[in-house]
Amino acid sequence: MERLKVAIIGCGNVSSVHFAATAQNLAAELIAACDTKPERAKAMGEKYGIPYFTDYNEVLELGPDVIHICTPHYNHSEIAIAAAQKGIHVLTEKPMSITLYEADNMIRAARENNVKLGVIFQNRYNRASLAVKEAVESGQLGRIKGARMFVTWHRPDEYYSQSDWKGTWEGEGGGVLIDQAIHTMDLMQWIVGEIDSLEASMANRTHHIIDVEDVAEAVIRFKNGAIGSLYACNYYTYDADVLLEVHGELGTARIEKDHAVIRIAGQPERKVFPEDDYEVIGKDYWGVSHKIQIDEFYRDVLENRPVDIDGVEGRKALEFVRAIYYSATTGEPVQFPFQEPMGFTPPSLTR
Ligand SMILES: NC(=O)c1ccc[n+]([C@@H]2O[C@H](COP(=O)([O-])OP(=O)(O)OC[C@H]3O[C@@H](n4cnc5c(N)ncnc54)[C@H](O)[C@@H]3O)[C@@H](O)[C@H]2O)c1
């Protein structure tokens, strides 16, 4: 069988999941690790017995079939576009970029160079997410009236002070929304449907060493008439289970962390759990489905199939995030599709 030559750019926290998934995939062959911090590139290179580099351009010159981008948010678009222009398929971590302008450039570069662009939103592949989506799409819940999501996690000041890119509009592109809540926002719009408009507020209430939001709330109006409520903060006392609930005329379907509870009038309650034997690589709250999405992406490349979460699909959660930043900054509701003003960056929220 043809094996894909795979290189991983960025050897920080999340890369451990990408290296492990790729090393376990018989259709893939790891050919390079890359990080601007030499000790990180070396550690992954030695662990997997592969050459390691500090400049991603040298990696692109090796001619990999696929690169994974596991770098900070601010350089996803630069690396993705450089790879696409060399005919290399790209699987990037979320968010695909900081701005919608960058996202559009990535989508265009992939299209023009006939390469696949995938965006990691691994939680779409969780059994719980699939069960709730199915309950909505099959009509079991009846007309969808509302949805609510809560992400209340814990990120101490050290989380920011120990990073050279988090906590700024330029480096991370935001705070709790673009980094932590974006997974649940992606599920909300994927399950409930297209957003029509939203109105939001945000603040930095406890992390005074950073510029970006550590709390945000929004009311979301969906095109199907449902109303959504969003609350996210990262100053809670622990990483509490994420909640996403969909309320239909006939019942509710709720995702709590990695399991779902579906309650439909006149039917027994249904619970959906992850498979018993799943292996958690990395942090527990990252979920268990990175490997599924990475395996799928390789199959898409090998069989030239469309990618489930391609650039257009991955952009939707970013549009949701950016629309909240815009609404919270201007105090105005935002209509979708959101036309982001060129160069829009929210001001520092530090008091
Ligand atoms: N899907 C998930 O559940 C999940 C979980 C954690 C992180 N992430 C995402 O993964 C990405 C990385 O996050 P992280 O927590 O691993 O960050 P990190 O800071 O731990 O690692 C990023 C690494 O990229 C390196 N880097 C920066 N610029 C580079 C360049 N030009 N070339 C090569 N290497 C470069 C840095 O030196 C660093 O080692 C982010 O987009 C983040 O949002 C996703």
Explain this structure.
By secondary structure, the chain is an alpha/beta fold. The protein has 2 domains: 4-122, Rossmann fold, CATH 3.40.50; 124-273 and 311-335, Dihydrodipicolinate Reductase, domain 2 (2-Layer Sandwich), CATH 3.30.360. It is 33% helix and 23% strand. The chain contains 10 helices and 15 strands. It has helices at residues 15-24, 38-48, 56-61, 76-85, 100-112, 127-137, 157-161, 176-192, 290-303, 311-330, and strands spanning 4-9, 28-34, 52-53, 66-69, 89-92, 117-119, 144-152, 195-203, 215-222, 227-233, 243-248, 251-256, 259-264, 270-272, 334-335. The strands form 2 sheets. The protein has a 9-stranded mixed sheet with strand order 14-13-12-11-7-10-9-8-15. Helix 5 (100-112) links the parallel strand 5 and strand 6 (117-119). Helix 5 (100-112) packs antiparallel against helix 10. The longest helix is centred in the last third of the chain and has 20 residues, at 311-330. The model has no long low-confidence stretch (mean pLDDT 96). It binds nicotinamide-adenine-dinucleotide. Nicotinamide-adenine-dinucleotide is lined by residues 9-15, 34-37, 40, 56, 70-73, 75, 93-94, 120, 122, 163, 179, 286.
